[in-house]
Amino acid sequence: IALNCMVKLAKGRPHLSQSVVETLLTQLHSAQDAARILMCHCLAAIAMQLPVLGDGMLGDLVELYKVIGRSATDKQQELLVSLATVIFVASQKALSAEVKAVIKQQLESVSNGWTVYRIARQASRMGNHDMARELYQSLLTQVASEHFYFWLNSLKEFSHAEQCLTGLQEENYSSALSCIAESLKFYHKGIASLT
């Protein structure tokens, strides 16, 4: 209830949102895993409404991600997904190579395939299609059936298509047409993988 109130407070009084986010980030380091998950949901909800997570805060989140990623309990797997979501929201569709490397490294060391899939889904939801594509690609070799392989391959191709569309520029029609054509190629590959 308190975290819902914080989201509503940040939405209703945007000038207080920075303080709310800083308070949550401070508490995030010392809280138990179950509380951290809820705090991450709260941070993501606030950040989706207002761009309040700056680069310095993103660095704190990435450092926390490194620390949390050292264990493989179920709660910490769920926390990795929640924290990755906040990182995706904070980065606003453009993850740096360093952040991508940290996320992938943590996922390779302790995560199961289901966690990687959930993080890839969140990356897609938040517009980080390049990251989603890379994560789906990494899962292709870990599945136990053809059905899952082709499903993940289609998601990888769809993410690649969406990534192509992010390069669209309204002023340049020839560039826009080439982006759309490239995107259609990957959508067709994804659909073919499903059939």
From TrEMBL:
InterPro entries, alphabetized: INTS7, INTS7_HB, INTS7_N, TPR-like_helical_dom_sf
Keyword entries, A-Z: Cytoplasm, Nucleus
Ranges where the Integrator complex subunit 7 helical bundle domain occurs: 129-194
A Pfam entry, by short name: INTS7_N
Protein name: INTS7
Subcellular localization, as worded in the UniProt entry: Cytoplasm; Nucleus
Coiled coil spans: none
Domain Integrator complex subunit 7 N-terminal residue range list: 2-127
GO terms for biological process, alphabetical: snRNA 3'-end processing
Gene3D superfamilies assigned to the protein according to its UniProt record, in alphabetical order: Tetratricopeptide repeat domain
TM helices/strands, residue ranges: none
GO cellular component, as recorded: cytoplasm; integrator complex
Lineage of producing organism: Eukaryota, Metazoa, Chordata, Craniata, Vertebrata
